[in-house]
Hints:
There is one protein chain. The chain is mainly beta. It contains 2 helices and 41 strands. A hairpin with a 4-residue loop joins strand 35 and strand 36. The longest helix has 26 residues, at 2-27.
Amino acid sequence: xxxxxxxxxxxxxxxxxxxxxxxxxxxxxxxxxxxxxxxxxxxxxxxxxxxxxxxxxxxxxxxxxxxxxxxxxxxxxxxxxxxxxxxxxxxxxxxxxxxxxxxxxxxxxxxxxxxxxxxxxxxxxxxxxxxxxxxxxxxxxxxxxxxxxxxxxxxxxxxxxxxxxxxxxxxxxxxxxxxxxxxxxxxxxxxxxxxxxxxxxxxxxxxxxxxxxxxxxxxxxxxxxxxxxxxxxxxxxxxxxxxxxxxxxxxxxxxxxxxxxxxxxxxxxxxxxxxxxxxxxxxxxxxxxxxxxxxxxxxxxxxxxxxxxxxxxxxxxxxxxxxxxxxxxxxxxxxxxxxxxxxxxxxxxxxxxxxxxxxxxxxxxxxxxxxxxxxxxxxxxxxxxxxxxxxxxxxxxxxxxxxxxxxxxxxxxxxxxxxxxxxxxxxxxxxxxxxxxxxxxxxxxxxxxxxxxxxxxxxxxxxxxxxxxxxxxxxxxxxxxxxxxxxxxxxxxxxxxxxxxxxxxxxxxxxxxxxxxxxxxxxxxxxxxxxxxxxxxxxxx
Length: 541
């Protein structure tokens, strides 16, 4: 009986201790540790926001081994790198928090997104109250609303355009930020019925245009040309979106839309240059412009006047020849006195005016804003206004020279050349392009029988240089020649070593015949060529 009584008392005591400890754990209120976040409730997109996390022990016991976790909002850039969560250990936040003690911690981030996006940060702290076994946690959140974006974005286009007519869009972008923005991309969404022709600058795709750097208070523009088709009174909507890339994700910063109504014009205007609707001109080229107009309305038209204005930047205005019309105040004008078609244009009738002008013999660009040049002329006939662009192909050049010194390779042997003596020389080729990028570029020549290819090569961009022993042909596969090479950029250079052992004495000897450069103009799509002079070497007598 005594044993049972003792056992009962032990169980009762153990249960009391367990109940006391459980009550003690449950009696601790998490409210004793107060946590709050202070920060800006509204901020400009791209600005840095500072958040202050405050914690205070309002209880009468020590809070041991605290750990603080701060969660940044989505699409933010912080000093924590790519990680959205910052975890601070007990030692990082100062160890145990004593009764009445208050601490503050700062976190900063640049918030990205579009206007009126809601960004939420969260802070939580876990700890173990003194003499208790379990850990507790308290947390709180704070909301910041994104205000104006530092990016300005707009689309310039006519409000109405006739179906099947050429359309010019201008997508303008600029930055109000005091700091540079990088890794931006502009996406253009085209409506159904829009046939893309070309753009300036050229995009990664027809609808994707990367903007590597947009400095503070700087701007840029994308010019797009195409043909818009649709039913009369139909509304066609173009959309432009600009954003920034972060960790492989596209973060939208700004978007705009532009609606264009398909109208039923009375006149349809087209243009040919040198008998082509999409002619690519070259330096010094004479351009024969033919402007055709057709009455596609429902009644005859009388007493019309046709005006065209041509931008003078790339043409020689002194070479202008106007058939029938006149040149006044920067415009070429034809009216009913100059053309019977303008005096009376019946339903379905087609009329035509024409003029000639020459492209300047030389064009230089000072920076890459001048790449991909076009000659723009605007035609105005009644209520019809149409812009036309004539692209200018790049001027490419190639030069070859030889070196006797050790510029790229170790050369040896006599120079001037001596009969029966072998001399090692370096051949250098340099290729340039004035104002357009050139793709698929290569330089080709065939070595004379007296020349030996020494299989030593060099280039300033990892270009491949090959030699065909069967044909004696040397090829330098350049790849791309950037716009401005040889002017605002270094030319593309490749070099290789040859040797020669003259058997017959002569005053001069041919080292290499003309080397030929081939490439494709990225702006015009035209095949471009250029060639060097013959390369001679002297002999000793």
